[in-house]
Design brief:
Low-confidence stretches: 33-42, 52-100, 269-273
Number of helices: 7
Shape: globular
Strand content: 25-35%
Length: 378
């Protein structure tokens, strides 16, 4: 980038005309500066920006969005904060709070889960060796080398007299993948669970979930696949879909990627015919305040967790913290009146908590981290 490019970029920033990616790049550079007045020459500024770019390329795994060829990696590195333009040459120095009050760090989540067998026995899937874990009913439960749990029919293939259920529970700070007995893939996010029979008899396949689960369903028109969660029934019509149904979230969301699903609320008075809503790809249902509605879905944001990053879209501090608390397995407390800040952008889920907090501090939200307790302060 030559001097003229830098001047044009800074002018667009001060006029509020930068793209979110350009703002992120400039603000990343600015956060690396001391609090003294900005009096850099163009040559110094260019060198600083080159240094920032190099560091970001070496130390981040963020999604890359093409901006200029030389800064493609740096362009989408920092969380985009929708609090208006920072006037680069006139703003007040940032308070350096988070660095002084992070007494420890918290590692990101990873593959962690437990399986509860029909007899109540609980097995850590994290600690289980690859290969056969145990046998349940007419199925052999196995753990593959990539950490997936799968089911295979046993050689005897004796149909049990009654349904035998397993439950996979993912704790806070965890994630897990299971191939259900019919071959359907279910990926569980932190603080989520799925309960299912070790074989699907009869005329339907039915599972129950809590939290957030992504499904890739093996379609069988003669044997519908149904998901039960928080009073909803989601029925596959040959599809890939994501369900977010955490108890501490005000909205239950079902977003469709491929195929079709029917979402219904059998007990909902707002659906007189109780037939529900049939979604097409790119659509989602929202269940809130006893009403089921339909809207367009941001599939990139919906699947961000599965693809390894957090995505924030006009989220307030409390919403953002609920997501972080589940993945980092932390307790969040609030002190004082927090700014009415909305957050937009992406952060990788493999970043340590301290790095995430440094980014969020740009919005004048500050933190005290002691052990597993995070206090959020204005």
């Amino acid at each position: 980038m030559d001097n003229q490019d830098i001047i044009k970029l800074l002018n667009r920033y001060n006029q509020g005309q930068c793209t979110e990616q350009e703002k992120a790049w400039i603000e990343t550079w600015y956060l690396s500066q001391q609090t003294e007045p900005l009096n850099h020459s163009i040559e110094e500024l260019s060198k600083d920006l080159d240094d920032v770019e190099g560091k970001l390329i070496r130390h981040t795994t963020f999604r890359r969005i093409t901006l200029w060829p030389r800064i493609a990696a740096a362009a989408s590195v920092i969380l985009f904060i929708s609090i208006g333009a920072y006037f680069l040459f006139h703003r007040q120095p940032l308070r350096q709070v988070a660095h002084n009050q992070i007494h420890n760090d918290v590692a990101p989540g990873g593959n962690k889960a437990f399986i509860t067998l029909s007899n109540g026995k609980k097995i850590s899937l994290t600690d289980a060796k690859n290969g056969t874990i145990t046998k349940e009913g007419n199925a052999v439960i196995k753990k593959t080398s990539d950490g997936t749990v799968s089911y295979e029919r046993s050689a005897s293939d004796v149909t049990p007299r009654k349904l035998v259920y397993n439950t996979i529970s993912v704790p806070r700070g965890g994630q897990w993948t299971v191939l259900l007995p019919d071959g359907t893939k279910a990926i569980l996010d932190a603080a989520s669970s799925i309960r299912y029979p070790v074989s699907f008899p009869g005329i339907e396949r039915k599972v129950e979930i809590t939290g957030q689960v992504y499904f890739e369903v093996v379609h069988n028109a003669a044997k519908p696949f149904r998901v039960i969660t928080r009073g909803q029934v989601i029925e596959d019509i040959g599809t890939k879909f994501n369900i977010e149904a955490y108890d501490d979230e005000p909205v239950v969301k079902t977003a469709l990627l491929d195929g079709a699903v029917r979402v219904s609320i059998p007990s909902a008075l707002s659906l007189p015919d109780r037939s529900g809503i049939v979604l097409q790809p790119g659509q989602q249902t929202l269940w809130q305040n006893n009403k089921l509605s339909e809207s367009a879905a941001d599939l990139d944001a919906t699947l961000a967790w599965k693809n390894g990053y957090f995505s924030f879209t006009d989220d307030n501090v409390e919403t953002l913290m609920r997501k972080l608390s589940r993945w980092y397995d932390i307790e969040v407390d609030y002190r004082g009146n927090l700014p009415d800040t909305k957050f937009d952008g992406e952060i990788p889920r493999n970043a340590p908590l301290s790095e995430v907090l440094k980014v969020l501090e740009v919005a004048n939200v500050h933190f005290l981290l002691e052990g597993k307790k995070l206090t959020v302060m204005p």
